[in-house]
Amino acid sequence: MKNTFTNFEEYFLLFPEEVQVKLELLRKTIHAQNADLEEYIGYQMPAFRYKKKPLVYFAAYKNHIGFYPASDGIKYFEKDFIERKYKFSKGAVQFPLNEDLPLDLVERMVKFRLDEAENKES
């Protein structure tokens, strides 16, 4: 996909309405974890920064939404992914479009990444 979008709204419009709803829900869930999160487009995906450092990315695909909480985030939540039968790699987890988003898990992953960011500064 060529990067012809400059913000989340433009990115979301590239997808069918039911996917847009999921993307917006994911966006709101992430924002709710910290008021200081900044939106941006990184690697042609919606992304969030915290204190000017990348925090998480996400992207929609034909059959899933990819969520990218960095490799430590994947390692830490691997048991959750296995238990919920999500496909994952060393840097991403896939949430099937035909299922509800695991917002509880997303919240935990974002909080984990925020804790990491805070601890790296100490």
What characteristics describe this protein?
5 strands; 122 residues; five-stranded antiparallel beta sheet; alpha+beta; single chain; Aspartate Aminotransferase, domain 1
Explain what this protein looks like in three dimensions:
The protein is globular. The protein has 122 residues and is an alpha+beta fold. It is built from five helices and five strands; from the N terminus they run ααββββααβα. It has one domain: Aspartate Aminotransferase, domain 1.
Task: Explain the layout of strands and helices.
Elements: H1 8-12, H2 17-31, E1 38-42, E2 45-50, E3 53-60, E4 64-68, H3 70-76, H4 78-83, E5 93-96, H5 103-121
Antiparallel strand pairs: 1-2, 2-3, 3-4, 4-5
Would you identify the regions where 5 or more consecutive residues have pLDDT less than 50? none
What's the end-to-end separation, in Å? 39 Å
Biggest beta sheet attributes: 5 strands, antiparallel
Number of helices: 5
CATH topology, what is it called? Aspartate Aminotransferase, domain 1
CATH class: Alpha Beta
Strand order of the largest sheet: 1-2-3-4-5
Beta-strand percentage range: 15-25%
Give the tally of structural domains. 1
Question: Which whole number gives the mean pLDDT?
Answer: 95
Shape: globular
Q: Architecture in CATH? A: Alpha-Beta Complex
Oligomerization status of the protein chains: single chain
Helix and strand run: HHEEEEHHEH
Number of strands: 5
Name the structural class.
alpha+beta
Kindly provide the radius of gyration, computed on alpha-carbon positions and rounded to a whole number of angstroms.
Answer: 14 Å
What is the share of helical residues?
Answer: 40-55%
